[in-house]
Each structure stands twice: as C-alpha cells, then as structure tokens.
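I can't quite decide. Please look over this sequence plus structure tokens:

:::
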Amino acid sequence: MLALSEAGALELHKEPTDIAALARDVVRTFASEAALGQVTLSVDASAAVPPVPVDPLRIREVLSNLLANALRHTPAAGSVAVTVAPRSAGGVVVDVRDTGSGMTAEQIEHAFDRFHKGRESQGSGLGLTIARSFVVAHGGEISASSDPGRGTTMSVTLPADTEV
C-alpha cells in the first residue's frame, strides 16, 4: 500500500464525503478504548464543513491512526480532542490534539519518516508514513506541532479540489 502510494499508483475511490460525520464515527470507534484509559475523547465539528471529494476508507485509516497514537501517548485524566473545520481557501482541516507526553522538535522532524519510532513506541514506525502518503495522495497536507510534556497536535488539511 505504501509503495503504491509513494509511486503515485494508489487507486483512490473518491466520493463527496462529510468529513465531520466521518470524524465523529471514527471517534465513536475509539470511545471504549479512551474510557478504559480514563482519557476524555471529544469531537467538535463545525456545521459549516463542506463535503470534500476523498476516498473515505483511506481518510478513515488516517484518522484512526492519529487517534490511536494520541490515545497511546495520553495518560489517564488526559484528553484527546478532534476538531473539524472548514478552511477559508476551501476544503477542511482536521486537528487531533492530545495532552500526552508531546514530542521534541527532532521527533517532529522525523515523525513521518519510514520506520521512525519514539522511545516508548510499540508500533512498526510506518503508521504516520502511511497516513502522510494517503493525505498527500488526496492533494492534502499533514503536519505535527508539539509542546514536550504538554501534548501534540496533528493537523490534516484536505483541499476542496483533490485532483493531483
């Protein structure tokens, strides 16, 4: 999948998608995991979010990866908040904010690199690389910002016109 995406050969099945509804659905799938970890999980989606032509399966995978990472790195009594809002230039932006351990500037610089893992990570080091490849295949962008010890925000921007 990653190789196809990086080669520009990943086939996307785009359809007008309500990203706010998709985000709410993904958040619901993580509700019990959040409750078990005693983490508050919320979603705030503007009613003004326009439908965006995306492959909903791929974008669901992106959001699922970001939520799984956020929950993994957020301690009990912490929170993970998903915000979906329209962009002034068209399209949408989805932010996944956590109150977890955060990342250093060096960790952010390499967060989307293949096989890069944080010290505490138990994953393969491919999740964010795959997420980035899916977002880029849609003509979008993904970025990270963080304050070590206070949390991380992962931002996904999807344009209204995703022809690339």
Q: What stands out?
A: The chain has a mean pLDDT of 88. The CA atoms of residues 37 and 76 lie 6 Å apart. Residues 2-6+13-158 form a domain with the Heat Shock Protein 90 fold (CATH 3.30.565.10). The beta strands are 15-17, 40-45, 52-54, 79-86, 92-98, 141-147, 151-158.
